Amino acid sequence: MENISKFLSGLAHPLLLPTVLFSCLFHFSPELFPGFNRSAYLYFLGGFLLITFIIPLLAIFALKITGSVTSLQMPTRKERIIPFLFVSLLYCFITYQLATQLTAFPIIYLVMAAISMVVVLQSVFTLFVKVSAHSAGMSGGIGILLAMGYHYDSNIIFQLLVISVVLAGAVMSARLYLNAHTPIEILYGIIIGFIPAFVTLYVLL
Question: 186, 135 in Cβ contact below 8 A?
Fold first, then answer.
């Protein structure tokens, strides 16, 4: 169980979830991105992965080297403040760039706006309480898919939503099993993830 829990935690790493979400949308619902061919979305995903996952991960690793954080898991609330604020600024910058550079594909920057809202609120709450980033990320994805389900008549989105709910339950259980978070920290993540993601995308769409 411990190995499975660690695997699920790594698979659903909060910084990786935006790329996973866009990958699923591109692959299973290409009709949402008219004119966005396979080469274009592969190029987009490569750059997106670099900016939203690899660069923040390297920044956290640099903080570990300097002793600002004790591990890449950042077990304490105080250790998470600087990395979370950095990611918030980075994601907001990415959202702005997407909104100005990909005006023909509003769904891309609108989804990114919802993701950024979750990250920003998570960073703010982390100033006061420890929040499960895994729970916030998974719940944010569910909120985004649910909002899209209201606006697009797509069986695929509904199927992705069901799968996401099941995976979210498994990931949250894994975090509890590993004693990485308490139930209340998981609950904070669910609220901070789902509500702003759903409301932001539902309103903007």
Answer: yes
- The domain limits of the chain are 2-204
Alpha carbon distance 139, 145 (integer Å): 10
Closest alpha carbon to 37 in 86, 88, 105: 105
Residue by residue, DSSP assigns 32-98 as GSTT--HHHHHHHHHHHHIIIIIHHHHHHHHHHHHTSSSSTT--SHHHHHHHHHHHHHHHHHHHHHH
This prediction has a pTM of 0.94
Q: What are the tens digits of pLDDT across the range 122-156?
A: 999 999 999 999 999 999 999 999 999 999 888 89
Per-residue pLDDT of 149-178, as tens digits, reads 999 888 899 999 999 999 999 999 999 999
**180 with 75: CB under 8 angstroms?**
yes
